[in-house]
Write a structure and sequence with these properties.
186 residues; alpha+beta; PH-domain like; eight-stranded antiparallel β-sheet; two-stranded antiparallel ribbon; 3 helices; 10 strands; elongated; disordered C terminus; PH domain-containing protein; membrane; PH_bac; transmembrane helix
Length: 186
């Protein structure tokens, strides 16, 4: 036995204990969130292929940060793999927003479920420069949630936000009155 064997064994025991406690905590979070409904499926045609309209703007590459309870950006939703951070491609369609995640199930946010879109500097363990995250607020069944996405290129963020928030885009009502300043200029 070497002189460091005891220290190595203690270190390994602490690492195994810490990993076990993390897994126990995640399992308990999953159990507490068992009432969270599954995200909607991507609309499919008769052949089972995705049936989404043309892109509104170009898709964006980036990182799916996570989905949290609306307004509580530290309460990560673990159910249905919504709490797993992955690389993703965000595309906006007339039917809604698709986050095609790499290594995890895709997240589809129907246009009718979107309640708002904003920018933030962080959520659930991912903090970046001021207004560096896109946050889509939406209704997952009866639960209000926020989904974060960080585009690979920061310059794309204002365009993505504008396309989601634009009249006729997902989550907007085409019958809304234009702002007062727009009405005056007509």
């Amino acid at each position: 036995m070497g002189q460091y064997t005891g220290a190595v064994l203690i270190t390994l025991a602490v690492i195994v204990l810490a990993a076990g406690l993390i897994l126990l905590g995640w399992r308990n979070r999953l159990r507490r969130q068992s009432d969270v409904p599954a995200p909607p499926q991507i609309p499919l045609d008769a052949n089972g292929d995705p049936e989404l309209g043309d892109f509104i703007g170009e898709p964006a590459q980036g990182v799916y940060v996570c989905t949290t309870t609306a307004g509580d950006w530290l309460d990560r939703i673990a159910a249905h793999h919504l709490g797993i951070r992955t690389n993703a491609d965000l595309s906006i369609h007339p039917e809604g927003v698709l986050l095609a995640r790499h290594g995890a199930p895709d997240v589809f946010i129907p246009a009718a479920a979107i309640t708002g879109v904003s920018r933030s500097s962080g959520m659930a363990g991912k903090f970046v420069e001021k207004d560096g995250l896109l946050v889509i607020s939406w209704m997952l069944g009866t639960k209000a949630v926020d989904t974060g996405f960080r585009p690979r290129y920061h310059a794309e963020l204002p365009g993505i936000l504008a396309r989601i928030a634009a009249p006729g885009a997902p989550g907007t009502d085409n019958n809304e009155e234009p702002p007062a300043e727009t009405k005056e200029n007509q």
